[in-house]
Amino acid sequence: MSGKPAVRTVLGDLDPAELGVCDAHDHLFMRSRLLPGQELDDPAAAEAELRAFAAAGGQAVVQWTPHGMGRRLRDLVVLSRTTGIHLVAATGLHQAAHYAPERLRDLDLARLFVAELTEPIAPIEPAEPADRAEAAGPLGRAGLIKVAGGYHGLDRHARWTMTAAAEAHHATGAPIAVHHELGTSALDVLDLLCGRLGVPPHRVILGHLNRLPDLRLQRQAAESGAYVALDGPSRINHATDHHLFDTLAALTEAGHAERLLLGGDTTTSAARGNPGMPYLLTALRPRLVREFGPELPELVFRANPARVLAFA
Prior knowledge:
Distance between the termini: 10 Å
CATH superfamily: Metal-dependent hydrolases
CATH topology: TIM Barrel
Shape: globular
Number of strands: 12
Helix content: 25-40%
């Protein structure tokens, strides 16, 4: 990477000013033994979703599916080329329960994360042939480290993965995105990542905080300088919609508009009743404009994602 900040997409490094309207947390492909029957593994369906998002004005999607959960990097490269949507892929590791124990043995996590951020992801996951990138140039690299906390606490696995994520961040400058189980443990995460491991808060994205409607906690998280991702409005299995606008209003009024992100976190097929990625732009964005004026949508969909995703 040159000395200029850049967002690392699956097609290579991108000027942050060119990222455009961004869904800051979503999934095109994913599989987990904890979610039988909810696999996202259909490239044609993913293409249709991206084209619908583009038709609504979308230009970029950040896929938070981490290592070992069916990211399908080769398909992401092809989809980005064919749809024109900028795609940011994730390295990292989810909670231990998503993996067979043998998948986690003997992993040098920091080395793995750095390799996936700096080299095309090909031979590093031999068990997932569809997850291999094309081996030419910079194609298929990850642009984000995704890790996960537990429910109201951080277990040994979470501390292991976050320690490796911090090491990879210090080596590459990559942002770190955190899954918070039902919105909990944000302060524990900040204490570990930013307090003990030295990751600057503005390089951390705290996901799912709207699943725990605790405005004091959300304000405290934003006051740290970390980004707060309010994600899940296009899902059918989390009751986040009814307090989304109160949360946005409270954090904006507290002066934290520049730390807010919105994402769909679409992990269930649109064919099963999910409104999908376009919902962010067709339903939520017009309401944001009416409620807050045009400045807040510009921040949450354009300026803030471009800022946090850029490698320094």
